[in-house]
Amino acid sequence: MVLSAEQDISARIAGLREDLNAVILAHNYQLAEVQEIADFTGDSLELSVKASDTSADVILFCGVRFMAETAYILSPDKMVLLPRLESGCPMADMAEADELRDMKREQPDALVVTYVNSSAEVKAESDICVTSANAVKIVESLPKNKPIIFVPDRNLGAYVRRETGRDNITLWPGYCPTHLRITATTVKARKKEFPDAEVLVHPECSLDVIDLADTVLSTGGMLRYVAVSKAMRFIVATEMGLIHRLSQENPEKQFIPASEQAICPMMKMHRLEDVLAALEGKKHVVEIPEKTRIKAKSPIERMLEAS
Ligand code: SF4
């Protein structure tokens, strides 16, 4: 049997994965063919949990850099590979540790709650991390009289502020450029076109988009929700990559992207060829200085305990 080029690469990846005792983790926003060869696909929280309890020697992370860093922070004895080292998250880059230290000096009583979409250095300055799946629950569990600095996503922070009713949350001015492309105007147009569809919105969207949602969920939450919903049509307000898994797991249901512009170029960097090259050469290793790693580990572990 003659294999196609893609099948050939996939077969070589499978062989190397076994030889190296590697596990391939892929975020729900990855290219469809990359999701297909992964051992696990999931959102940031689900992949953090996998990274923390794997018995593999090598973790190959198909996601953006902060995700691979989180895997290394939790499992420093593993080799963590990122197929394209330049795949950073623009929102994570909007917060720098120096600036955060300045804000902490201005608000010495505040707790720093940091979205996992952040650098290891910023996590190291934080009290607790959150993901889009657990942010509301975790902030609700914190003492009400303590002010909070929420870093770096102003949209997720604004949503948490509204859901928890806390007015003592200072928002960092970061945002996701991909979710910013989903506007209330495009969602309203989709709703008009498909009035029977349920609207699923990721909390990285702005509040005026969130206001149009039937439900607000992380990508992992969307997958679980759709599996049990009686609705047959969904307008999906998040990065386009999730549509692949939603359609695969629910072939009888229809998924309409809220915006076809919502494509994260950083998430789409890793191609099968890059995965193969990283495994073959054991290259593009992600590591963090030990002092930073130890400091960044505590807020992640606090989050995992509270989730
Ligand atoms: S979708 Fe947004 S938050 Fe996620 S990696 Fe891309 S830029 Fe960062």
Provide a descriptive summary of the structure in words:
The structure is a single chain. This protein is of the alpha/beta class and 307 residues long. The protein folds into three domains: 5-88 and 267-288, Rossmann fold; 92-175, Rossmann fold, CATH 3.40.50; 178-257, Rossmann fold, CATH 3.40.50. It has 15 helices and twelve strands. It has helices at 5-20, 32-37, 44-53, 65-74, 97-106, 120-123, 135-140, 154-164, 177-180, 184-193, 207-210, 219-228, 242-249, 272-281, 290-306; strands spanning 22-27, 40-42, 58-62, 79-81, 111-115, 128-130, 148-151, 169-171, 198-201, 215-216, 233-237, 254-257. The longest helix has 17 residues, at 290-306. It is globular and about 65 Å long. The model has no long low-confidence stretch (mean pLDDT 96). Bound molecules: iron/sulfur cluster (SF4).
